[in-house]
Amino acid sequence: MLKQLRPAIVLIVALTLITGVLYPFAMTGIAGVLFPRQAAGSLITQNGTVVGSELIGQYFAGEKYFHGRPSATLGPDPADPSKSVSQPYNASNSMGSNLGPSNPALIDRVKTDAAALKAENPGAAVPIDLVTTTGSGLDPHVSPDAAFFQVPRVAKARGLKEDDVRALVAAHVEGRLFGLIGEPRVNVLALNLDLDKSVGG
Predict the structure, then answer these.
(1) Parallel, antiparallel, or unpaired: how do β-strands 43-46 and 49-53 relate?
(2) Tens digit of pLDDT for each residue in 68-103?
(3) Angstrom distances, CA of residue 116 to CA of 21, 44, 182
């Protein structure tokens, strides 16, 4: 019996070492050498302080900032750890809302968000990504349409010309990867940081 078990045990130990230890360490080392910034989390620093990552969205509530997509991530309730509360862009709990398109809670939230956005910019159609969450709840990007939609509010809150803010948004539009993969997008954190730096806070 030991003769039959020994190869199985040796194989399990060998594969565990190869796939669970050696391979991850090798890939981490190679990534650190070839892509050091990305391997460290694509962090964004300002004045030597880490302010976020290009890969994870942040919650911006002020009128003078561009807002990202809604986030459905949750976290523990400070008052009762056995319950969960909304914590937008909580990277430790990546998730979507899992609400189906016929769910009344989702319909009500989307209608409320759309009405608020329509009041903010009555002359424009509300971009879908400003009222829908992503599967991860952490998306750092919005579509160019969603960023341009917010220009009047941001310009008014900062006392700036809309054309100046629109030009800044246009400068932050990232194209498709290799011209083929994905959709054009705008990184909200990078745009807001540049907005503070370029045209005043």
Answers:
(1) antiparallel
(2) 888 877 777 777 777 777 777 777 777 777 778 888
(3) 51, 31, 29
